[in-house]
Specification:
By secondary structure, this protein is of the alpha/beta class. 16% of the residues lie in helices and 41% in strands. The strands form two sheets. Strands 3, 5, 6, 8, 9, 11, 14, 15 and 16 form a nine-stranded mixed sheet that branches. Strands 2-1-4-7-10-12-13 form a seven-stranded mixed sheet, with no helix packed on it. A hairpin with a 2-residue loop joins β1 and β2.
Length: 296
């Protein structure tokens, strides 16, 4: 067993990426990058001007296999504004079964620290979970009461279009949001062959794509009246897209929650982007101009 464990450790990636973005007279700048393993960024881009930095998270292996642990930690200091995304989909591949050990977990953890008056947009492209994976994807967001956050996660189970459904794997998506060190949102979806969550009518009801888009802003930026009006506007847009059966919009105090449940990641992204373009002017006083990398 010791030999098998040593072999497993040799075949795993333990990767860490730490970024700090700060605001100064020169705008928002990427002032610190600390990395270990196959996680990196090139530089910050400024398609909207110096006040908002666009950051693309790069993972050259393009997938996470058994034993891999990826950790991303991003800090935004006071008044900084960053839009964080990825150039392509994330992938949890089929887990290998090491004898006497079982299938080592594949894990990705993202921690976002958003300081006073800072603004963070966290929009990774979809996560594809292959049949037979043993995957955990965790996102922790730590906000200040007067910071602003917009973020989504999009999870795709299996490759149904290639006749590779997700039947034997395990996948957990955990998102936690804290405000002033108090948890205001905890959402966990744990799928495995035993609980039949993907098939159950009270779960995913046979759908292969589930996603959540959350938005937080203090009341002096988005008042209760504005939020209620915005929800009605978003629901009207969803009706215009004939997507009432796919998307729901609700809120918990200052936290707006949009959920998608369906079969198509591209459809989900299209709808989320449409809604983001209506959210952004109110939450961030900026137009919803898509990052160029989303078009490649």
């Amino acid at each position: 067993m010791t030999t098998n464990l040593a072999t497993t450790l040799k075949r795993q990636w333990l990767a860490h990426l730490g970024l700090t973005l700060s605001f100064s007279a020169h705008g928002t700048q990427l002032v610190r990058t600390k990395r270990n393993g196959p996680l990196s960024v090139q530089k910050a881009f400024y398609p909207e001007g110096r006040d908002c930095a666009h950051v693309y998270l790069l993972h050259p292996p393009a997938g996470i296999v058994s034993g891999d642990e990826l950790q991303v930690e991003i800090e935004l200091t006071p008044k900084a504004h960053a839009l964080i995304t990825t150039p392509g989909a994330n992938r949890f591949y089929r887990a290998r079964d090491d004898h006497n050990i079982g299938a080592p977990e594949q894990r990705q953890t993202t921690r976002l620290q958003v300081a006073r008056a800072a603004k963070c947009e966290h929009f990774p492209l979809e996560t594809i979970v292959y049949e037979g994976a043993a995957a955990i994807n965790k996102v922790d967001v730590h906000l200040h009461s007067d910071s602003v956050y917009l973020g989504w996660d999009i999870s795709c189970l299996g490759l149904p279009s290639a006749q590779q459904p997700f039947e034997l794997g395990r996948f957990s998506q955990l998102t936690q949001i804290y405000c002033d060190d108090k948890i205001i949102y905890h959402d966990r979806v744990a799928i495995n062959p035993n609980n039949q969550l993907q098939q159950h009518s009270a779960g995913l009801a046979g759908n292969s794509v589930f996603a959540t888009f959350v938005a937080y802003a203090p009341v002096d930026i988005v008042t209760d009246t504005q939020r209620q009006e915005l929800i009605e506007t978003l629901r009207h847009s969803i009706q215009e897209q004939n997507a009432e059966q796919l998307i729901s919009v609700t809120h918990i105090k200052q936290l707006l929650i949009i959920r998608y449940l369906g079969q198509h990641a591209e459809q989900c992204k299209h709808l989320f982007i449409l809604l983001w373009q209506q959210l952004r002017p109110l939450y961030l006083q900026k137009d919803g101009i898509q990052p160029r990398i989303w078009h490649t």
